C-alpha cells in the first residue's frame, strides 16, 4: 500500500444525502442546494470535514439534504451553535444556513455578533421577503405596503436591507446573488476562500407566498437591464449591452444610474468598483432600479477563533493547563446525601 495514497476526488453525489428533498415545487431553495453541492467538490472540501448548521424555516431543512455533518438548531440561534463548534474544532468547514425571518428577526442579535466577531465560517441568508414556513406573514425584509395574513392592510414596517445590516455589524465579507443565477457558485467560492465571517445574501423566490418578488432581475429577457455584477477594479457597467453605469453625483455624493453616450457620458465617468471601500459598498446595497450582485465588500480582519486560540495558549503558558474537575470543586462546596 502506498504511504501517501492519492486524495479522493469528490463529486456532487458525495455531498447529496439519501433524503427526499421536500420543498414546494418551484422553490428557489432547490437551485441553491444544487449550486452548493456542485461547488463544494471544487473547493477541496470533504463531507467528513464539512458542517451545515441551520435555524428554523424552509431554508433550515438544508442539513438533511447534505451528506455532511449538520445541526438543525433552534430559531435564530444557528450562529451561536456555529461559533461554539468552530472554537471547539477550527479545522471544520462550517456553513450557516438561515432565512430573512430566522436570521434578521429572532436571530438578529446572534447574526450581528457572529459578524462583528469575524468567526471563520460562511453564512448564507436566503431572502424571500416573507415567512414561508409559517404560511406567509410579512418578514423583516418585506416591503412597505405588503399585504399578508399578519398585515392585512399592508405592512407599515421599514424593511431591513440585509447587506447594510452586515456592513453595519462590521462584516469583513459581504456578497449578494440570486437563487437561479449561474454566478451564484462564484459568490460561494469567494466566501469560502475568505478568512473570517463571509455573509452572502441570496435572493430567493417563494412561489407560494411571494412569487416573483425579484422578477425585475431574474426575468431572462428584462433581468440583465437591472443586474449589476460587480468586479473589483472594473467600471460598474450593466445592461444587456453594457450601456448603463453608475456615476458619483458630485452634488449629492450618491451613486446615480447613467447611460453611456448620453450627455457626454463616457466610461471614464463610471465609478470603478473597489471591494475594500466600505462607504462604496454601503451605497451599492440599495440602488434605484438596479441590484448590485457579487462581492460588495471584502477586507481582511482579525479572525475570532484564531484570536481565541492564541489567547487560550497565552493563558496556559501563564497559569498552566486548566483542570475543570478541580475548578468545579474549588471554594465552598458541599455534598447532598
Question: Overview of this structure, please?
Answer:
With 337 residues, this protein is α/β, with parallel strands linked by helices. It folds into two domains: 21-234 and 274-306, 3-Layer(aba) Sandwich (Rossmann fold); 235-272, no CATH class. It has eleven helices and eleven strands. It has helices at residues 29-42, 62-65, 78-88, 100-106, 108-117, 162-168, 184-193, 215-218, 278-284, 304-319, 324-328, and strands at 50-54, 69-72, 93-99, 122-127, 173-178, 198-203, 227-229, 237-238, 244-249, 254-259, 291-298. Strands 2-1-3-4-6-5-11-7 form an eight-stranded mixed β-sheet, with helices on both faces. Strand 8 (237-238) and strand 9 (244-249) form a beta hairpin. Helix 3 (78-88) packs parallel to helix 5 and helix 4 packs across helix 5. The protein is globular. The model has no long low-confidence stretch (mean pLDDT 95).
Key terms:
337 residues, 3-stranded antiparallel β-sheet, 8-stranded mixed β-sheet, 18% strand, alpha/beta, globular, Rossmann fold, single chain
- Which overall shape is indicated by the principal axes computed on the Cα atoms? globular
What proportion of the residues is helical, as a percent range? Answer: 25-40%
Order of helices and strands: HEHEHEHHEHEHEHEEEEHEHH
Oligomeric state of shown chains? single chain
Helix segment tally = 11
Average pLDDT reading: 95
Parts with pLDDT < 50 across at least 5 consecutive residues: none
Strand content: 15-25%
